[in-house]
Design goal:
The complex is a heterodimer of chains A (about 260) and B (about 575). With about 260 residues, chain A is α+β, with helices and mostly antiparallel strands. Helix content of chain A is about 35%, strand content about 25%. Chain B is built from 25 helices and eleven strands. Classes of the chains: A alpha+beta (about 260), B alpha+beta (about 575). Chain A: InterPro entries: DUF3726 (IPR022201), Mal/L-sulf/L-lact_DH-like_ah (IPR043144), Mal/L-sulf/L-lact_DH-like_NADP (IPR043143), Mal/L-sulfo/L-lacto_DH-like_sf (IPR036111).
């Protein structure tokens, strides 16, 4: 089915509230999913893939700071989805970069990592240069790098595989964020490296996707939509004869 | 006026948020020349928009479809109307209704057979349908049965309806929701940001309602002509003008006000800037006479206004009773350079709130050249962004400086936490429940900002005891549930008209004030509360007609001068003001 951006964002927000997210987290998570979807980056599919995990997670789940100093922070995402409270880990990097010019934040053990792009977009819009890096798979070894220019809310995304796999290739389900207040960090693939470019989404392509989504609507799988609606229903109060009076109106307006 | 000029008057010289954002004052606002219906009509006239009928396929009962073309210099749109039979038992203004007398959509671009078929299958279903992404606005309306019957009867007999019927209820149709911004598959508002016709908030919705007004006139004339082809006559121009479109509104407006604080702040900032600009003008004798004339017109309009609601009747009467003193003041005070400032200071000391805000509205009305450019500033990019590096101590100071109103309430008391707001499973209709008596409080909509700010403030104070040098993000990493309140406060100290200074839980809180706040910016008149949380209003009453617009008016100032419309006289009849004010029996 076709839905609008606002409709997708609104339903996701209600669904996340239904899952038990705090209001701010529900709004951020909904923004992240809708942002990804309208830029052609399959946000709803990503969400659907992680929804069962989300439903099982503790409501109190939040990333823990393992180490931090002025420029650097390492956090443990406890294996939870980036949709829940991970925005604060990125905000920590933002604060450090504002104070020190450049920051590095490593978030270990998290999933649904693609969706973090939706929140990084906001930080970039607030004037921060950002590079995000993570590994999508170990065999073959694939890496993803996302670069935002300060003031631009749309990134450039590259996914590539590495032919020359290092001996140390332990599973890595973390994200590394580098933020710089004044210096552009746009990544480019080095010609000398033994890489196969698997996907490249320049800023212009993602912007065109967004434009098309606004003009023609966003295609969403019916079954996922129905599932989100079921979750959103959790925040509603069942109607009763007494509660119908709570709207303060009569039932008939034949006057 | 240049942007630099506009900026130079803002924010200094504007009334403080603690005065403007009191709920009782917001609930006393009147429409101004910056209200959305007024801005739209000016834009249509200035840019020579043209409206034409391209389809009018109604049967003798008025049922069928009609399409109106709206041509602007930049684009073409179509209002597509579906009128259908409706069982009286199903005629409800509530969102939980499932059928209506008329449903309609405003479409960007042309309507071919395929789109018309898609709309015919979905627009009448409203929320239950899936709307096409080129549909900008979706709405529905129910008849005012008494007015409709009276108008058809009179016109069929070749007579004009009694204008007093329109004074009592100023429309043939009242809308019960006007949807935009992506609802049910409609076009997102973001798509309109580059559209010079409808980039202002709610302008597309208001255009849809304006087309419905025209349809209501053509439909009632069609019915009269079908019934009595030999005797029927068209509606007289002065009655057409006096006919608006109603709107029936409930608690749904409250969450909007809370969820869009930066937009509300923007609207109120423009209104307050307009007032500040007006107060700065050095008045001439002509200005003084113009204000006297406007005051007389507004007084008569309010005197004519009929509502069954005792409290609103009393408020209207209090305003009408106060205005003769205003006229005396205006006629007697020497024409000094700061006379308008003197006027608002005097009115603040002596007049009820609605009368004070009426004076402000009328002062704004006097100065189109100075204030009309503000209508282009009604939109805003909405982002409640965190400032994670802010020292937490600084955040605490911001709360204590700007949210004193929120900290002053007792949210533990029964009275202070009396209401809770929720959405019902019945089509998500917003409702109010009594916290200690009704089920559902655990699913409360968190729109009462006061208690949330107080809660966050308490947590911040406790955190600062242990970590006095902490930043905001340090606090939030430990207490993430406060993120939304923290970034709201950080954002709104820069947009201080964003939060309404009241406890929305309190037993004495009046939801009607919230409804009126938003409706005044739409341009509503004839506030007619049906309960403490349900109101009917009228839009476009007195507005220029489609045929006047199509005639490309030369005098745009005269075209724009339609605020506070008055009941027209019946031909050959000179009724006393007092008799008119009594209206007709219900």
């Amino acid at each position: 089915m076709k839905v609008s951006y606002n409709e997708l964002q609104g339903l996701c927000r209600k669904a996340f509230s239904g899952v038990g997210f705090e209001e701010g987290d529900a709004a951020d998570a909904a923004d992240m999913v809708a942002w990804m979807q309208c830029h052609g980056l399959h946000g709803v599919e990503q969400l659907n893939r992680g929804l069962d995990y989300l439903l099982e997670e503790s409501h109190e789940a939040r990333p823990r700071v393992i180490y931090q100093d002025g420029d650097l922070a390492v956090l443990d995402g406890l294996g939870h989805s980036v949709l829940r409270s991970i925005s604060l880990a990125t905000e920590l990097g933002f604060a450090k970069a504002r104070a020190r010019g450049l920051s590095v934040v490593k978030i270990r053990r998290c999933h649904n990592r693609q969706l973090i792009m939706g929140y990084l977009s906001r930080l970039a819009g607030r004037g921060m240069n950002i590079t995000a890096f993570w590994r999508n798979a170990q065999v073959p070894l694939t890496e993803q790098v996302v670069g935002f220019r300060a003031g631009h809310t749309t990134p450039e995304v590259r996914v590539y595989s590495v032919r020359d796999v290092p001996e140390e290739n332990e599973p890595n389900d973390g994200i590394t964020l580098v933020m710089a207040n004044h210096v552009e960090l746009l990544p480019s693939l080095g010609a000398d490296h033994d890489l196969d470019l698997l996907a490249h989404h320049p800023e212009s392509e993602l912007l065109a996707c967004r434009q098309l989504a606004l003009e023609e609507g966003i295609e969403v799988d019916d079954a996922i939509w129905a599932r989100l609606k079921t979750l959103a229903h959790r925040i509603l109060v069942e109607s009763s004869e007494a509660s119908r009076g709570g709207a303060g109106a009569g039932d008939n307006d034949n006057d | 006026m240049t942007n630099a000029d506009l900026i130079s008057v803002s924010p200094s010289g504007l009334r403080p948020a603690d005065e403007v954002m009191r709920l009782e004052r917001l609930g006393s606002l009147h429409a101004t020349r910056l209200s959305f219906v007024r801005s739209l009509v000016r834009q249509m006239a200035r840019q020579r928009w043209q409206i034409s009928r391209v389809r009018f396929d109604l049967d003798a009962n008025g049922h069928g479809s009609a399409i109106y073309r709206l041509q602007t210099p930049h684009g073409r749109y179509h209002g597509v109307m579906f009128a259908q039979p409706l069982d009286d038992a199903k005629r409800s203004d509530r969102v939980i209704a499932e059928a209506w007398d008329v449903t309609f959509g405003l479409v960007e671009g042309d309507v071919d057979d395929s789109l018309l078929a898609q709309m015919a299958a979905n627009v009448p279903l409203q929320e239950a349908g899936r709307q096409h992404p080129r549909v900008l606005v979706l709405s529905r309306a129910n008849k005012s049965l008494r007015n409709f019957a009276h108008f058809v009867d009179a016109l069929a007999d070749g007579e004009q309806p009694d204008p007093a019927w329109l004074t009592r209820v100023g429309y043939l149709y009242r809308t019960t929701a006007v949807y935009g911004n992506g609802k049910f598959g409609l076009a997102d508002f973001a798509r309109l940001l580059d559209n010079p016709d409808f980039r202002r908030p709610f302008s597309a919705q208001m255009a849809g309602v304006y087309l419905l007004r025209h349809f209501s006139i053509e439909q009632v004339e069609h019915l009269a002509a079908c019934r009595s082809p030999d005797t029927a006559c068209p509606l007289a121009p002065e009655l057409r003008r006096y006919l608006g479109i109603g709107n029936s509104t409930g608690l749904g407006m409250a969450p909007f006000l809370i969820h869009h604080p930066q937009l509300i702040a923007q609207w109120i900032t423009q209104r307050e800037t307009a007032l500040a600009l007006a107060l700065r003008q050095v008045p001439t004798e002509t200005d003084r006479l113009a204000l006297i004339a406007l005051t007389r017109r507004a007084m008569r309009h309010l005197d004519e206004t009929v509502t069954e609601d005792a409290e609103q009747t009393e408020r209207n009467a209090a305003t009408v009773a106060a205005l003769p003193d205003v006229l005396t003041w205006l006629a007697s005070v020497p024409l000094e350079a700061d006379i308008w400032q003197q006027l608002v200071e005097w009115s603040a000391r002596t007049l009820p709130l609605e009368a004070q805000e009426l004076i402000n509205t009328l002062l704004i009305e006097l100065y189109p050249d100075q204030v009309d450019a503000l209508e282009d500033q009604m939109g805003v990019a909405e982002n409640l962004d965190l400032e994670p590096d802010m020292p937490l101590m600084r955040f605490r100071q911001l709360v204590e400086t700007h949210y004193e109103w929120a900290l002053a309430h007792d949210y533990q008391s029964r009275e202070g936490a009396y209401w809770f707001w929720y959405r019902s499973a019945d089509k998500e209709e917003p409702r109010l429940g009594v916290r200690h008596a009704e089920p559902g409080a655990e699913k409360e909509m968190p729109i009462a900002i006061g208690p949330r700010v107080a809660h966050t403030h308490q947590a911040v104070c406790e955190f600062l005891v242990e970590q006095p040098r902490a930043t905001v993000v340090d606090f939030l990493l430990e207490h993430p549930r406060h993120k939304e309140v923290v970034r709201r406060v950080q954002s709104l100290v820069k947009a201080p008209y964003g939060d309404i200074h009241t406890n929305l839980w309190h037993r004495d809180m009046k939801p009607m004030h919230l409804l009126r706040t938003k409706l005044s910016f739409f341009g509503a008149s004839r506030f007619d509360p049906k309960s403490d949380r349900w109101v009917r209003i009228t839009l476009f009453q007195g507005a220029p007609l489609v045929e006047e617009l199509n005639a490309e008016p030369q005098d745009l100032a005269e075209f724009d001068d339609w605020s506070f419309p008055l009941e027209p006289h019946r031909e050959g009849e000179a009724r006393s003001l007092q008799a008119r004010s009594r209206g007709v029996a219900g």
